[in-house]
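Worked Example 4.2. Consider the chain below.
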Amino acid sequence: RLVTTRAAAAAFVGALLGAGVVPLWTGLLDPRAGLVVIAIGVLWLGVAMDRRTRAMARLALGIGLVALGLHLMRNGIEPLVVDKALLHLTSGLHANTVGGLLACVVIGAVLTAILQGAAATLFVVVGLLQTVGQLDLHVVLLVLSGSGLGAALAALLTAGSETMGSRLARLYLLLGAAHTVVTALTARLWLSVATWALPMSEPLATFGKNTLRPHLSMQLVLAVVCSQLAAALLILPWVNPLNRWLKQRQRASSEQDAPPVVLSSREALIEIVRLQREGLQRLWELVVKRERTSGRAAEHLFADGRRGIESLLTQLVSARVEGSDEAELRQVGFACLQLQRSFEDLLFRAERFTDRQVALAARGNVQAHEDEQDARLQEMHELLLQAVDAASVSIQNRQRVELAAARAREIRLNALEAKARRAVLGDEDGGIVEQVRLDILELLDAYEGAGNHLYRLAEALGGTLITRRSSHPPAAEAS
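Applying the procedure from the previous section yields the following structure tokens:
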């Protein structure tokens, strides 16, 4: 969500260009260069003092690992390029017919999708070209032209089911298919240009000691560079029109198939509140019983709740509701988001508090007034659960939240927080380890923040379509 869909699609086009061009010179590098870059990255990471320096060190380390990985991949491809079954399969490849052209493109797309990159496809194709001796540069270009479609198919594995992710994956698929079509149809043109510009013949690959070392023909390099660059320039202007077309289709489909906004929002809110309540229950087990598994379970439940809130906000932003109800529904979604953030912060503080308590207990250091702290925390936790239950009942039964009771719970929770804070700060006899004192204060503050956001959610639910019976009456009342 840091970039728009159009910017991400443009970056995908640039990635296709880089993936098709950069691997052409990686075979010319000494494999030991990757180890040198890895060593530099490790040393750099060890002396890095700030976030930017550590990021640059990790970038250098990643580049070294990629360079070394390409070298190791070449060694692993050697048995593949001399396999009899594969040689028999590729010996009949040609580009004289439509079927042969499609076969070359499909092979390149499948290899790129499986091997997750055009570099591995290039090494496989060049190795086959050297071993079989029957493949020409036109066939190599056609196989490499399938890298655009293969990269788009590989991107489908990482695209989520959310609205933005699915639309971006479909946009990638269209751009990758267009890239493959352009490079396949213009392969012979760029091969002719490369042959005219560089008439000298060069070997395509050589076998060194226990390794395949591609010595790429400059004709192949020039043809691939021209092909990839031309395809990128041709499909780049189509990013915006395709994005608008997909957005219109998605909007029309959602308007036709989606349930009413208020009904779907109510169902989403019920599920979100349920996940948050279960997460709070697991969080309490983490604080009281010191069970780390409960903390992980709470983290997963809150993560599911966040995904539900993000989906709800996306639906509410694109919803069309008459009058001021649209703003009220969006206010409910934003109140849920604020509450979700407060719960996530509460979980973080609880984990730090629990880790400190477990460490002190392992050293035999038992905290003074621990029972009193647990009693106050338990009462504050029960107030949170009561507020969540009240919001859940309000949404399910379509009735207004009792703001007086919600306000009373918030005042009571704030009073408990103030009392517990004074007790922690006023303990001067050394009964509380100083390292734990700040953790307790942060945990109490997180409880108070969650209670405040629960009251804001109650205010947002009051008087909206979610809790108004007259907006969507049940079937019995309507009849």
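Residues 203-215, 470-479 have pLDDT under 50 and may be disordered. The two ends are 45 Å apart (CA to CA). Compare this with Example 4.1 before moving on.
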